[in-house]
């Protein structure tokens, strides 16, 4: 999992995905027919298939983070959120800026924990005053939580930005494991700006004009302790075949196709019915006259926290299901 570790440690806050894009391009170029980067920063790799119909896969490169809005006279850095941030998830976290500057996230001690909002947080980079802070950071600079990935128990691992670098890793591994031509002309998209509105996938799908599409992303699970919105998905129970989320009701044709493949290849799977959230599938399926779209999701605990947890067996199941889909035409 060294490649995944390098991906997670490569900062890619929304709108600043270029370093991760470079890493991905260096890994996949020997295995595809062409790779390009578009205006939005999406990486689009192409592999010719046996059928001229087009299949688009999409996993997003961006991670949630922080953007500097102002620096006060005491050198404390105030920020706006980039994507979905929750106060309790970020309290006391170490952070790293795009330029390598390190700091810590802290909140105003006068505020009771139950009353915390993002406006009560600031970043401390150790500067004594505004002038010193401005040597390192300027308004508009971005930062993310600082960390890596580590093993948990027999089969699991946790770390920052599994959403959605674990899906980028799965897409990359599928590319590397392919043998021969896929069923369709296939476009492997590593998209940008998903966390602020599926923006990269929107333009990539318009450009590719796919007939079929599969979005790869993490999904919420039902096996956290005392959770507010439980569902049937569990860590270690296999790849999650998306039925719906708040952004899409998936094509029955694609759902049935993925389920049939999982059964045929004896790949562990489960059905994902998510009543919140969304993925690149939400944008892709609405492209032009519509696209037959589904999703392969990676069960994940503690989404949008610095310790997102996945199961390695689910990761392998997702790779195998994606490979099966690449080689098999829809009925």
UniProtKB/TrEMBL annotation:
GO biological-process terms attached to the record: proteolysis
SUPFAM superfamilies: Aminopeptidase/glucanase lid domain (SSF101821), Zn-dependent exopeptidases (SSF53187)
Entry keyword annotation includes ATP-binding: no
Family annotation (InterPro entries): Peptidase_M42, Peptidase_M42_aminopept, Peptidase_M42_dom2
Pfam families, alphabetized: Peptidase_M42
EC number(s) stated in the UniProt entry for this protein: 3.4.11.-
Protein name: Putative aminopeptidase YsdC
Source organism: bioreactor metagenome
Gene that specifies this protein: ysdC_16
